Amino acid sequence: MRVQEGVYWYREKGPFDANTYVIEDELTLMIDPGLRDYLKLRLEEMERDNMSMERVDIVMITHLHPDHYDAVAVLKENYDLRVALHTSQLAYLEPMIEEAARFFGMPARSRLAFCADMEIKDVLRLGDRHELQVIHTPGHSPDSICLYSPGGKFLVSGDLVFEHGVGRTDLPFGNEEELIRSIHRISLLETELLLTGHGSIIKGRAGIASNYEFIRSFYGYGDNLRQT
Ligand SMILES: [Zn+2]
Ligand SMILES: [Zn+2]
Questions:
Q1: Three-state SS at 186
Q2: If you placed Cys at 133, which of 109, 113, 148, 211 could pair as Cys (CB 3.0 to 4.6 Å)?
Q3: Would you state the pLDDT for residue 218?
């Protein structure tokens, strides 16, 4: 489903899946392809938007949890695309895949995973419209990133914040203090479209601001946020 010019959202298909996003510019980027079992459904949805995997140049993930990366290996096998990992994801590739596979009880195929073709540090330029800022936002996992487009004013937040929720920190290498600092950091960005890793996306600056407000009060992060 198209949510902004050149920005597409494919909603998660089940409890162990994640939202997928496609950003189209001179280069086309897919973020979080989700679980491989749902790949066929995703490709069908993309076709309805006149989008296809053949047009995808780069695949990224917001973090190394199988609900986000499981389909990457299959895509890499079947399409001519590059897998781009953030510096922190490269550092945590082995331990995260081992731990996450154990924690989620994923079969061994997920551990095989993939290797990176590109390393992304802090910027990924797709074209004139989207020069994405790649922001390291640890907490839910040590390798979590958010992608922000100053041009499109959208933020892909992965499992850091959701509608009325935040990412859990009880998974391997999770850290609540870091999560709070990361939420504070992204809450300062001018965002008109919040593209979350699970559940609904949030449209409109006011709705996004009140979502951060809800998170602060509900989770009691207000005092901590002021200190950081
Ligand atoms: Zn996660
Ligand atoms: Zn997730």
A1: helix
A2: 148
A3: 83
Specify the CATH number for the domain of residue 221. 3.60.15.10
Q: How far is the CA of 64 from the centre of ligand 2 (A)?
A: 9
Give, as residue ranges, everything with CB less than 5 Å from ion ligand 2.
Answer: 18, 67, 159, 197
Output the CA 63–ligand 2 centroid distance in Å: 8
Measured in Å, residue 197 CA sits from the centre of ligand 2 at: 6
Q: pLDDT tens, 78-93?
A: 999 999 999 999 999 8
Ligand nearest to the CA of 20: 2
50 — alpha (psi -120 to 50), left (phi > 0) or beta? left
Q: Give the span between the Cα atoms of 174 and 192, in whole angstroms.
A: 28
Mean pLDDT of 132-140: 98
Integer Cα distance of 219 and 126 in angstroms? 36
Q: How far apart are CA 213 and CA 155, in angstroms?
A: 17
Q: Give the range of the structural domain holding residue 152, as residue numbers without chain letter.
A: 2-227
Of 124 and 227, the one with more pLDDT:
124
Distances (CA, A) of 94 to 91, 114, 228: 8, 10, 31
Q: 53-72 pLDDT, tens per residue? A: 999 999 999 999 989 999 99
Number of domains within the chain: 1
CA of 54 to the centre of ligand 2 (A): 25
Helix or strand holding residue 206 (H, E): helix 205-218
